[in-house]
Amino acid sequence: MPSSTASVERLFSLMNNLCTTNRNRLSQDRLTALMMLCREGCQQLSDDQTSKIVEIFKKMKERDIAL
């Protein structure tokens, strides 16, 4: 058992920063991918992990945004 819960608390904090009231419809796959990118950074991820993340975002539908 870890002696500290700091690493878990950091992950929950990151998740709360990503999944806000404006972005509350993120799927679990997208949220996980964003958390990996934010936590690890692109340079730290393997090519396979990066490819999986890119595929998740490729599947997203395009949105019409009114500015």
Automatic annotation (TrEMBL):
This is HAT C-terminal dimerisation domain-containing protein. GO terms for molecular function: protein dimerization activity. Residues 1-37 form the HAT C-terminal dimerisation domain. It comes from Dreissena polymorpha (Zebra mussel). SUPFAM superfamilies: Ribonuclease H-like. The lineage of its organism: Eukaryota, Metazoa, Spiralia, Lophotrochozoa, Mollusca.
